[in-house]
């Protein structure tokens, strides 16, 4: 289906819809709360969302023809019939599903290679306002604790060009694993972002955060859950 959102005066909208003969749904965001949650600065701004509620593509600016729309639509229309298999989302206390993915800098990364070190694993996208808002906090904590062994790994399904532009613009140098076929997102059952896993040195998930961190203190609080084991190992040696 198609859903539109506008902050415009209702009378003006009705006149336009009647004049053009349009019958699609228009949601009225009078207080701009939805615009703010989606970080809309310019219009038109279009999201293509699949049947699981996952954003698969985003377009800022106008489409010039129907072919461009159809090209984006293919990203949310499955090419193969859905399977009946049900994946179980990783839970606290479970081993974090392993994966190997190419990275934005042209290398590859394997999660299990980080065994022996605590890991913050963050699923995100540069188009996601909440992801962008919390990233400075994650970067600050990861850089401060890097000398103590903390690893910071992120996973994105986004277009490489957009990611590179964002990383260069913000001066970020953390590892971005590219999950172009969404296989890792599916194995971790990512329904919304940002989605962050705190994994201990044995590869066990000790905490999961869905949504953005508001400050570094919240991250440090979660980090304690994976740091205690690491500290303990160090004391035993």
From TrEMBL:
<dbReference type="GO" id="GO:0016209">
    <property type="term" value="F:antioxidant activity"/>
</dbReference>
<dbReference type="InterPro" id="IPR036249">
    <property type="entry name" value="Thioredoxin-like_sf"/>
</dbReference>
<dbReference type="InterPro" id="IPR000866">
    <property type="entry name" value="AhpC/TSA"/>
</dbReference>
<feature type="domain" description="Thioredoxin">
    <location>
        <begin position="90"/>
        <end position="228"/>
    </location>
</feature>
<dbReference type="InterPro" id="IPR017937">
    <property type="entry name" value="Thioredoxin_CS"/>
</dbReference>
<protein>
    <recommendedName>
        <fullName>Thioredoxin domain-containing protein</fullName>
    </recommendedName>
</protein>
<dbReference type="Pfam" id="PF00578">
    <property type="entry name" value="AhpC-TSA"/>
</dbReference>
<dbReference type="InterPro" id="IPR013766">
    <property type="entry name" value="Thioredoxin_domain"/>
</dbReference>
<dbReference type="InterPro" id="IPR050553">
    <property type="entry name" value="Thioredoxin_ResA/DsbE_sf"/>
</dbReference>
<dbReference type="GO" id="GO:0016491">
    <property type="term" value="F:oxidoreductase activity"/>
</dbReference>
């Amino acid at each position: 289906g198609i859903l539109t959102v506008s902050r415009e005066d209702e009378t003006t909208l009705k006149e336009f819809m009647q004049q053009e003969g349009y019958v699609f749904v228009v949601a009225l965001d009078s207080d701009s709360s939805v615009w703010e949650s989606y970080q809309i600065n310019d219009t038109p701004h279009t999201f293509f969302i699949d049947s699981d509620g996952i954003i698969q593509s985003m377009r800022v600016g106008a489409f010039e023809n129907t072919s461009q729309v159809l090209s984006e639509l293919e990203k949310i229309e499955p090419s193969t019939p859905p399977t009946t298999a049900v994946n179980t989302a990783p839970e606290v206390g479970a081993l974090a599903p392993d994966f190997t993915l190419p990275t934005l800098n042209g290398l590859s990364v394997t999660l299990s290679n980080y065994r022996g070190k605590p890991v913050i694993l963050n699923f995100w996208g540069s188009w996601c306002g909440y992801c962008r808002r919390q990233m400075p906090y994650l970067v600050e904590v990861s850089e401060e604790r890097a000398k103590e062994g903390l690893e910071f790994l992120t996973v994105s399904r986004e277009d490489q060009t957009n990611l590179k532009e964002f990383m260069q613009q913000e001066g970020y140098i953390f590892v971005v694993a590219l999950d172009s076929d969404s296989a890792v997102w599916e194995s971790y059952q990512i329904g919304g972002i940002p989605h962050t896993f705190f994994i201990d040195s044995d590869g066990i998930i000790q905490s999961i955060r869905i949504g953005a961190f508001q400050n570094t203190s919240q991250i440090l609080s979660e980090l304690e859950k994976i740091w205690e084991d690491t500290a303990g190992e160090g004391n035993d040696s």
